Amino acid sequence: MPYLIAAVVLVGILCVLDLILSLGVIRRLRIHNELITKLMSGEATSVAMMMPVGDSAEPFTAITDADGMVTEKSLPGRNLVGFFLEDCTGCQQLLPDFLAAAARFPGGRERVLAVVVHTSGEEKIADYRGRLAPVARVVVEGADQGIGAAMKVRGFPAFGLLDDGRLLASGPEILRATAPAVG
After folding, report:
1. What is the pLDDT of residue 115?
2. Of 12, 70, 155, 162, which residue is most buried, by most CB within 10 angstroms?
3. pLDDT tens-digit profile of 133-179?
4. What is the pLDDT of residues 60-112, one digit of tens each?
5. Rounded CA separation 156/175 (Å)
6. Residue 122 in contact with residue 140, Cβ under 8 Å?
7. Residue 60 to residue 129: CA distance in whole angstroms
8. Which InterPro entries match (predicted)?
9. Looking at domain 55-178, does it have CATH number 3.40.50.300?
């Protein structure tokens, strides 16, 4: 009889633990559902992929493919910046939008900086280089280095509109803005 009572108590405790875990999962799913609904309806902005709006880029130095050295001081006025990762599906999907925004950006190629981040080797980024070079100065760097670290990039793709090194806006929405609104 004592074994039966111990077994019933044990099963009861397991049932209570399972109920608590299930309620926690249901609560988390409701939160995710609300976030997804807000993102799809446009109520919420996208997740911040770089430093907060209003912050300034930390000092950096990088070498572009064809234009020499670039620093935070060599980006006066308004500049469009895009960060891409070699094997990133979202980066491939938004690359045409970035190319179009870069082509119409006031000041042209001198005011657009594209940073391509490689994690395994530079051979996979040739496509990015070829497509970005006509409309932007291209910098290739490793993860968590140089410009990405200076602008606190946390995910890819990341896009920013800088004004004298200070972030005015970020996110893919800035790519869809018209040229006068961006410039």
Report:
1. 95
2. 162
3. 999 999 999 888 889 999 999 999 999 999 998 999 998 888 987 44
4. 999 988 888 999 888 899 999 999 998 889 999 999 999 999 999 999 999 99
5. 15
6. yes
7. 21
8. Thioredoxin-like_sf
9. no
Contacts 24+ apart (CB under 8 A), 97-101: 97/172, 97/175, 97/176, 98/132, 98/157, 98/159, 98/175, 99/131, 99/132, 99/135, 100/175, 101/174, 101/175, 101/176, 101/177, 101/182
Report domain extents, the chain: 1-45, 55-178
Name the nearest CA neighbour of 113 among 168, 58, 74, 169.
74
Decide the pairing of beta strands 78-85 and 112-118.
parallel
From 19-23, 127-131, 178-182, the region with the lowest mean pLDDT: 178-182
Tell me which residue of 48, 51, 72 sits closest to 61, measured CA to CA: 72
Looking at residue 145, the DSSP 8-state letter turns out to be -
Q: CA 177 to CA 76: how far, in whole Å?
A: 21
